Amino acid sequence: MTSERSAACVLAFDDEAAFAARLAAALGTPLHVVERHRFPDGEVKLRLPPALPPRVILLRGLHHPNEKLVELLLAAPGARELGAREVTLVAPYLAYMRQDMAFAPGEVVSQRHVGALLAQAFDAVITVDPHLHRVRSIDDVVPQRRGVALSAAPLLGAWIAQQVAAPVIVGPDEESDQWVREAARGHGLEAASGRKLRRGDCDVSVMLPDVDVQGRAVVLMDDVASTGHTLAAAASQLRERGAASIDVAVTHALFVGDAIERLHQAGVLRVWSTDAVPHETNRVSVVPLLAAALRRDR
Ligand code: R5P
């Protein structure tokens, strides 16, 4: 029987209702959808259920993050006014994690400040494969709060092992090394990662690792693909080196503009992703991963 103390609900927005329904079903909790009204001047008004249980799990994936951050900053205190004593943010994709230092004098370190905003609003933040490079732990991103960073790499590794016979898993840069090795572990797969030099949003060079891919199946893996330039640069080189096939697996399928076309032009055959960001390439669900973490976090 659900005790008053552990009574919970999932609160979600209409554009994520399908994912939220799967999460609520996995948890056995009710799902409520936030009503949104956009005023003619662009402001937003939210309407939550008038009486909320003590534990509210607010789902908001932060792809296209700017407006969603405002929604979160309204929804979290609003939920507390309506009965929530603990509000947990489940953000399958946590935005603004890549700007984790001032790369030029005067640049604002977005990761730190977005993290501080979330820490102010939520008791806990649960996410999947956040881009933590110079900051090693999610706890440092949301100070004084519970941060939980889950990894979809084992799930992607299992998917890759089902789809491709004995592939080499290659990461395009240093950061991807952690995910590539985790995906390969347990399946006896070879893994290696390269180095990347980024000169601009759409201007990257990738130096691939010294691994023999001639005649072999390769799966390129990364935490996030945005413009696709990073993966395309890696794929072109793998093709030149004689890879038998090149597939792509990512946790977060942002794939802006013509990113998917760019990958195919560079020689990529198939593109797979998790549903941490909704996209036509979604093949692996992170719902069970999130549900298990939420059960542990009680
Ligand atoms: C950053 O290092 C990330 O891990 C990705 O490699 C990067 O965000 C990919 O961006 P794009 O697809 O625009 O090259």
Give a quick precis of the structure.
The chain has 298 residues and is an alpha/beta fold. It is built from nine helices and 15 strands.
Describe the protein's architecture and organization:
- This protein is α/β, with parallel strands linked by helices and 298 residues long.
- It folds into 2 domains: 8-151 and 285-296, Rossmann fold (3-Layer(aba) Sandwich); 153-275, Rossmann fold (3-Layer(aba) Sandwich), CATH 3.40.50.2020.
- Helix content is 31%, strand content 28%.
- The protein is built from 9 helices and 15 strands.
- The longest helix has 17 residues, at 65-81.
- The mean pLDDT is 96.
- The structure holds ribose-5-phosphate.
Low-confidence stretches: none
CATH architecture of the largest domain: 3-Layer(aba) Sandwich
How much is the average pLDDT? 96
State the helical fraction: 25-40%
Strand line-up across the major sheet = 3-2-1-4-5-6-7
**CATH class identity of the largest domain:** Alpha Beta
User: Which outline best applies?
Assistant: globular
Number of helices: 9
CATH fold annotation of the largest domain: Rossmann fold
Instruction: Tell me the major beta sheet.
Output: 7 strands, mixed
- How large, in whole angstroms, is the Cα Rg? 20 Å
Q: Which cofactor or ligand species appear?
A: ribose-5-phosphate
Number of strands: 15
Order of helices and strands: EHEEEHEHEHEHEHEEEEHEHEEH
User: How many structural domains?
Assistant: 2
Spatial gap, N to C terminus: 15 Å
In terms of structural class, how would the helical and strand content be classed? alpha/beta
What share of residues are in beta strands? Answer: 25-35%
